[in-house]
Amino acid sequence: MKLTGKTAVYGIIGHPVKHSLSPLMQTAAFRALGIDAVYVPFDVAPENLGDAVNGLRALNVKGFNVTVPHKEGVIEYLDFLDEDAEFLGAVNTVKNEDGQLTGYNTDADGFLQSLIEEGIELEGKRITMFGAGGAARAVGYAVLKGGAKFLNVVNRSFSKGKVVGELLGKRGNVLVFPLKETTVATLLKDTDIVINTTSVGMKPGDPPLFDYSLIPEGITVVDIIYNPAETPLLKAAKEKGCKIVNGLGMLIHQGAIAFKIWTGKEAPVEFMRRIVEEELYG
C-alpha cells in the first residue's frame, strides 16, 4: 500500500475496538477497487467521544463506523441523520462532506440483505426474536420493513422488552413476552422464523437461551452471532432440519452499505466475505 497526501482516511470508533473486523474488511474493499484510502481503528473512551468526533471532522476523515458503546452517544455530535438512524436512535456509519457529518444506520438493511441472499422470505411471516438490545432494534425494524406479519419480542427483562416493543410497534404488529419456558413453547408452535439477537452462544458453556428441543422442524433459525459459525442454537436447529443462518452476512452487508455511502461505489461483497471468513474460520 502506497500512502500519499491524496490518500483518504476512514475508520471506526469504539471502546474497545481491537476485536473489530471492519479494518480488515474495508481495507480489502478499497484495495479490490483500487481506491486510494486507508481504514483505521480508533479506541475512544466514552468521556472522549465529543472530542474524538470533532477531531475526525477537523482532520477531514472522510467517514467512519461507530460501534459499542457509541452508537447512541455519537448522535449529539452530528449534523444530520438518515431516516433509519433517526428512528432507531443509533448510528453505525458517519459520512463527512465538507465538514458536515451525516449519521446512518446500516445494521437494519445489512440484516435484511443477509436474509435476501439466503432466499428467506419475510412477507407475511411470523417472527419470534430473542433480545431487546441495540441489535434487536435494528433486526426487528428490518423484519418489519421486509413485510413480516407479526413480531414477538422475547426478553429476560420484560421492561426492556417493552421499550423495544413500543418503538417497533410504530412500524408493525409487535407483542412482547418475558423469557419463560411455557411462553416460548407456545410462541414457537406458531413461528416461521426464530432470531437470536443476544450474545448467548458466543462463549463456550453459555447456558441455552431456551429449551432447544422446542424448535419446530423445518423452520428458519437465525443467530446474529458469527463467531462461532454455528452456535448451540444453530446446531440444535440444524438437527431439526431447519434452515440456519449466522450473523456473518449481516456483518458483511452492513459494511458493504457503509462502503457505498462513503464512496458511491458498489462494494466487492464476495471478496469482503472471503477475507473475513479466512480471518474468522481459517
CATH class of the largest domain: Alpha Beta
What is the 3D form? globular
Q: State the helicity in percent bands.
A: 25-40%
Q: Which strand order spans the largest sheet, edge to edge or round the barrel?
A: 2-1-3-5-6-4
Distance between the first and last residues' Cα: 24 Å
Q: Report the count of strand segments.
A: 12
Average pLDDT score: 97
Q: Could you state the CATH homologous superfamily of the largest domain?
A: NAD(P)-binding Rossmann-like Domain
Number of domains: 2
What share of the residues does DSSP label as strand, in percent?
15-25%
Any idea what the radius of gyration is?
A: 19 Å
Q: Structural class, judged by helices and strands?
A: alpha/beta
Low-confidence stretches: none
Commentary on this structure:
The chain is an alpha/beta fold and about 280 residues long. About 40% of the residues lie in helices and about 20% in strands. Strand 1, helix 1 and strand 2 form a beta-alpha-beta unit.
What are the salient characteristics of this protein?
282 residues, alpha/beta, Rossmann fold, six-stranded mixed β-sheet, 20% strand, globular
Provide a compact summary of the structure:
The chain is of the alpha/beta class and 282 residues long.
